[in-house]
Design goal:
This protein is mainly alpha-helical. The protein contains 13 helices and 2 strands; from the N terminus they run E-E-H-H-H-H-H-H-H-H-H-H-H-H-H.
Length: 438
């Protein structure tokens, strides 16, 4: 409202001008929220299939009372995987099996004896030429100074050939005789007297093996012990074929087999101890281990074969050494006899001269032989040797009550029948008598 003042007639008038009221301003209207785009029309729903009538529920079985849970056993440490069962097309104890064992024996004996040629050369000369060869190391040094390393291989040809033949007979026939002798009796008896089985089978096999070895052994010893005193080169022959020819000319066939009896004296006790000692050593080793044999892998089983073979070889050397000394002296001097060697040689020297060298040689030799032999067997899928199974359980014997029951029952059942027959027959006889009277 404004006030105006006007002067007129000496008086002041105040005029109030009243402003008209302002019209109310329109308030902004709230905008409606944006509408969502319309969804596409839904496809018409398929008519629902009529519900199948519900089958009546089976009555629930009453719950069994829960048994108290057993306390969990502590987990056992995992053991290494057992050796897989050998798979082979060769049937055990067939002709192919025995031939395979013979081939394994060739590799076993032929290769190992050839590798031991240097020690065998020195050992033979210590027995045949004790004045020139006084010890193992002295003999090796003497030969190497005179001929070099090659001189230590003197006689390797007849050694390889002879012991290959011997190995084929020894191992092949041992498996054959062991099988045949075991089947002459029942299984329980064979296990009980298995020591006798090992000894008899090995002795039988070695008897034939020595006949095959004898000609080659005679040539080997003659080549190794007839050396030039200065150059130490062999003076008899340079190799197997020349040596065989010369011995045939000088000694005939009899000269080649002259050493068979002393070979039997040396090799049969040696082989008996070799197989018996090995079988028993392997059995002892497995019996002191935590698992049976078939739960060890092939490498572990071959380790047991080598250990058992080495232990057996130590005893083999001691048992057969006196006869080995006699063989060396006989082959060096063809005019001597076993009796002469026995009388002219000191008994102490006969049993101990060269024994240390022979123990090292035979122990290593026997261990390697069993390792090679069993390695060949596993290679063709056959099991390793040794580790005899437990004795079979004896058959159950019938009790006295079981035997007596049928005996008592039979007469009791038969008695009434026997008594009834005469009773039925009696009236008939009386009737016949009455008929005759009439």
């Amino acid at each position: 409202m404004d006030k105006l003042c006007s002067k007129g007639g000496g008086s002041i008038k105040t005029i109030e001008i009243i402003e008209p009221p302002k019209p109310p301003q329109p308030q902004p209207q709230a905008q409606p929220p944006p509408q969502k785009p319309k969804e596409a029309p839904k496809a018409p729903e398929k008519p629902k299939e009529p519900e199948k009538p519900k089958q009546p529920e089976k009555p629930k079985e009453p719950e069994k009372p829960k048994q108290p849970e057993k306390p969990k056993e502590p987990e056992k440490p995992k053991q290494p995987a057992a050796a897989p069962a050998p798979t082979s097309s060769i049937k055990l104890y067939s002709t192919e099996f025995f031939l395979a064992c013979s081939v394994g024996g060739i590799a076993s004996c032929g290769l190992t004896h050839m590798l031991m040629t240097p020690l065998d050369l020195v050992k033979c000369n210590m027995q045949a030429n004790p004045k020139e060869f006084t010890g193992s190391f002295q003999g090796i040094n003497k030969i190497m100074k005179a001929r070099g390393v090659g001189g230590l291989l003197t006689g390797w040809g007849p050694t390889l050939a002879g012991y290959s033949v011997q190995g084929a007979f020894k191992f092949g026939l041992y498996e054959y005789f062991k099988y045949k002798y075991a089947h002459m009796v029942d299984e329980e008896t064979a296990y009980k007297y298995r020591d006798l089985l090992y000894l008899s089978a090995s002795a039988s096999a070695e008897f034939f093996a020595d006949v095959g070895l004898a000609p080659f052994e005679a040539v080997k010893v003659r080549i190794q012990t007839t050396l030039d005193p200065v150059t130490l080169k062999p003076t008899f022959a340079n190799g197997l074929f020349s040596g065989l020819g010369k011995m045939m000319q000088s000694d005939g066939i009899g000269g080649l087999y002259k050493g068979v009896p002393p070979l039997w004296m040396r090799q049969i006790p040696y082989t008996m101890m070799k197989f018996f000692g090995f079988e028993r050593a392997v059995e002892l080793i497995y019996s002191n281990l935590s698992k049976p044999k078939d739960q060890y892998n092939k490498l572990q089983q071959l380790g047991v074969s080598f250990a058992g073979g080495y232990l057996a070889g130590i005893f083999c050397a001691a048992v057969s050494h006196p006869a080995d000394t006699i063989v060396s002296k006989l082959n060096k001097n063809k005019s001597m006899t076993i009796g002469q060697v026995w009388r002219e040689t000191s008994k102490f020297d006969l049993m101990t001269k060269g024994l240390g060298t022979r123990i090292v040689m035979i122990g290593t030799l026997t261990g390697l032989q069993w390792l090679i032999y069993d390695s060949f067997k596993t290679a063709v899928g056959l099991p390793t040797t040794g580790g005899a199974k437990k004795a079979p359980a004896p058959l159950p014997t019938p009790t006295k009550a079981a035997v007596a029951a049928p005996v008592v029952a039979k007469p009791a059942a038969a008695a009434p029948a026997a008594a009834a027959k005469p009773a039925a027959a009696a009236p008939k006889k009386e009737e016949k008598k009455d008929e005759k009277k009439h």
